[in-house]
Amino acid sequence: MHREQATNGKMSSTILFASIAILLVICIVAAPGPAFQASGQGLSLWWRIVFPAVLPFLVLSEMLIAGGFPQGLGVILEPFTRRILRLPGSFGWILPLGMTAGFPASAAAAATLYKQRKITALEAERMAATAHFASPMLIIIVIGAGYLNNPDLGLLLLVIHWLSGFAAAITLSHLLWKKTADSSSSQPAQRQAAVQTSTRTAKPGLMRSALRRMEEAQQEDGRSFGKLLGDSVANSVQTLMTIGGYMLIFAVMIHVVNSFLPASVFSYFIAALMEVHLGTYAVAGLPVSQPIIAALLGTALGWSGICSFLQVQAVLKPAGISGVRFIIQRLIHGAYAFLLTLILWRPLTAIWPDAVPAYKEMNHPLAARMEAALPNWQQAAGSLRISMWLLIALIALWITISLIWRRSSRQ
Predict the structure, then answer these.
(1) Residues 251, 278: contact at Cβ < 8 Å?
(2) pTM of this structure
């Protein structure tokens, strides 16, 4: 059964990649000039948004995983994350990482934990799907300040993006994946034994148990600091190069395909379906009411595009992890984002009037407007600093909530 599923997965992946390769060749041959311009646009998006937003977190994540931080954190969070999301406690590191760094940082961290046999393949896949969020830099600076000329509206979109992601995760955990999550909780045995031991530990010994798990993880890794730093940088840059390649390919396909289509809603749909950066830019230029634009932007961010799915697959597939659940979660995330935006638009904008400026149509050429909307290096550095503090705050919040939940469950 598993072999048949693996064979079918490999066959579908082969067909998908072959189709993309053929379409790319057709696009380049049909319109080499626009293809070259679009590839430059994709390179700008990668260099000025993805690279500075993701690289530091990828390096930090791999070093912390080798140092045992997620494993130690999992000792504290395991009962809470199992009860709420049916995921191991190390998800307490994966989720804040995805919320602050954006995709595919969470998938890379989940794949690393799986390679170290700390989690199962199913848990790694669900972690990557649940913690798959767009980065705050993209939503606030690029979409809010750049596309819509209002960072407050970008912040509102970020809040809805997070809420809809949590709603999708809880819905799937307790409805669709309840049986599979329960059946996978018995693996791997070594991690489960450690969790059970830590659960029986009295509260004063909880931190001691977490530190012990960190020490064990460090001993299992065994790399020196210099070796670890070199491996982390090399792996992170390789991951980012793969991301950049996908972004260039999809920028070319979107630009060339839409050049053969009339300016209609269908052309906007193609962009949003394929790549989130260009897709949200296309949606932001639609001549419709502002609540509808915000809802469509939330849907595009929740779906995040076929390009992001392939980026995650490039990280998960080498580790032998599937991605079927990833697509399901993206669809539900996008649907929740659309509904929540329309439901919460009036109350949130009544409390937050600065998030609703007068809508201005975008009459500039796409390339010039896109370049103007991208953040400069000073803005990227400021966003990175805020994201780092946000990561620390989210981890502290996870720990606080988990400790409060432990105390209330004992009473």
Answers:
(1) yes
(2) 0.83
